Amino acid sequence: MPDRLALVSRDVVHCERCPRLRRWCRAVARTKVKRFQDQEYWGRPVPGFGDPRARLLVVGLAPAAHGGNRTGRVFTGDRSGDFLFAALHRAGFARLPVSVARDDGQELIGCYIAPVARCAPPANRPKPAEIVRCREYLAREWALLTAVRAVLVLGRIAMDGFLAMLRETDRPPPRRLAFAHGAAHDLGGGVRLFCSYHVSQQNTFTGRLTPRSFDSILAKVKRHLGGDGNR
Ligand code: SF4
């Protein structure tokens, strides 16, 4: 399904549905931060990234102002991405341990990353209505990623956004599911939902989320998918 996923990405990149977020992303891209003054910011909505044959879908929150909004790729060029890609690499889901730019050669192996909101929000907080507006893109990717058997949600908002999307499909979740770090839930059809705290600095710098803890969740994902083969 690579071509149809590319169509979703194209639509995401040109989306203007949330005026507040579009204004914010453009303003950040104009002003920049000192350390990236010499760089041209992406400044547009950020599409999903990964393997069209993914068996693992990682659902994030939204791009970071000076991460995805700068580089144009989710979890790329910021501390959250440093943590996430290093872990995905250790688990065999990413070719490289870092993700710094769209042309860095990074490749996800059996894994696809999609946030519930595709524009960087002020204070890293999209409004509920913005997540609802953005849901169509996650739904379209979900329909195309037919090999997915594990979904890893990063934080409660990502979980709520993913489940809200799922409730609008012909495969809704079996019941109301509670978020807890390390919890896992069956979604039916052989798909299992895994929960983790978000990989943001508020969690990783404070020790609330450690590489060891995140690795253990990815190990459970791999066991569910069946051994070491991510494809
Ligand atoms: S958050 Fe989503 S729906 Fe809103 S403008 Fe960005 S891409 Fe469009």
Using brief descriptors, characterize the structure shown.
single chain; globular; 6 strands; about 230 residues; 6-stranded mixed β-sheet; binds iron/sulfur cluster; alpha/beta
The level of helicity is 25-40%
Low-confidence residue ranges? none
Please state roughly what percent of the residues sit in beta strands, choosing from under 5%, 5-15%, 15-25%, 25-35%, 35-45% or over 45%.
Answer: 5-15%
N-to-C span: 15 Å
Largest sheet: 6 strands, mixed
Task: Name the structural class.
Answer: alpha/beta
What's the count of strands?
A: 6
Order of helices and strands: HHEEHHEHEHEEHH
Radius of gyration: 16 Å
Task: Kindly report the average pLDDT value.
Answer: 96
Q: Hetero groups bound?
A: iron/sulfur cluster
Account of the 3D structure:
This protein is α/β, with parallel strands linked by helices and 231 residues long. The protein contains eight helices and six strands; from the N terminus they run ααββααβαβαββαα. It has helices spanning 2-13, 19-31, 68-71, 79-90, 128-144, 156-167, 201-204, 211-225; strands spanning 49-50, 56-60, 111-115, 150-154, 184-188, 191-196. A six-stranded mixed sheet has the order 1-3-2-4-6-5, sandwiched between helices. Strand 5 (184-188) and strand 6 (191-196) form a beta hairpin. Helix 5 (128-144) crosses helix 6. The protein is globular. The chain starts with a helix and ends in a 6-residue tail after the last helix. The model has no long low-confidence stretch (mean pLDDT 96). The structure holds iron/sulfur cluster (SF4).
